[in-house]
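Subject: for your reference before the review

Hello V.,

The reviewers asked for a structural picture of the protein, and I figured it would be easier to keep everything in one thread rather than splitting it across files. Below is the amino acid sequence we used in the manuscript, unchanged from the supplementary table.
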Amino acid sequence: MFDKILLATDGSENSFQALREAFQLGLLGAPAKVELINALSFDRVKAWGLGVLLSEEHRQIREKALEKIKPQVEWLTKHEVESKTRIMEATPEQCIPRVARLEDFDLIVVGRQSKGFFNRLTIGHVSQRILEQAEKPVLLVPAEDRKEGSTVSKTILVPTDFSDCSRQGFETAAKMAKDYGYKVHLIYCQSYSEFFADFDGLANHDALMVFWKNHRDDALEKLAALTKELTDQGIEASSAFVDDSVWAGLETVVQETGAALVVIASHGRGGWQKFWLGSVTERVLKHSSVPILVVKKPEATAP
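And here is what came back from the structure prediction:
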């Protein structure tokens, strides 16, 4: 499924962690080919007060960049994964999405750049810009490291709101389940308090409870239909209704199920709109403790 994978790397431990995580998730097995791109902005280097770079200085910087990512190449070779490297003179957010689109990569792998409680509340500037501009699926790997060789759960968690957009995430998870042997756990998250936040006492309690029950039953029926769609394809699947907001409920279910990966769909937008992620997707990305695969839903073209 993901046969041509692009890893955004700067040679840091964070990018190495993203590489290892993608491998442990089973995404880098044969026939997958990996390309590591280290994007260097020489304009930024000049801005640091180094002046105009001479050709020799330029060459030395490129050689140092290649040396930094050499351990990742050696690690891939050790694990029998075909790879190559490239140094590009641009910022990562400028070149990674563009290369992925023009050279038809199947997946972009990006490591989050931060650790700790406060930093988990942000995605990271580079990661966010890549996510916003990419048209290809992006695997965003959090900074928390998983010990190499540790057992990885074979469960994919897929949030849905039954929209056309979330359908894209559902279909991607189904393909991954077939190709990589994953189980799929579907969830629909809806907080009772948020659902009735705008009523402000305008309806009595009994009426609200009937309305809530009908809404919940409808969601469970739709979840059951989606689950059956998966099991009919021979995929092990389950589903649940979660009384919570999407980002908080999803993280709770991750902890309960031990899911290794979350697959979530986001609108693929053109023009200026591509520079903003959906608010739900962004909150999920900020709070998730496991890798998130963001799948863009192509925008419909005008007839």
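For the response letter, the relevant points are probably these. The chain is about 45% helix and 20% strand. Confidence is low (pLDDT under 50) at residues 115-123, 269-277.

Happy to draft the paragraph if you're swamped.

O.
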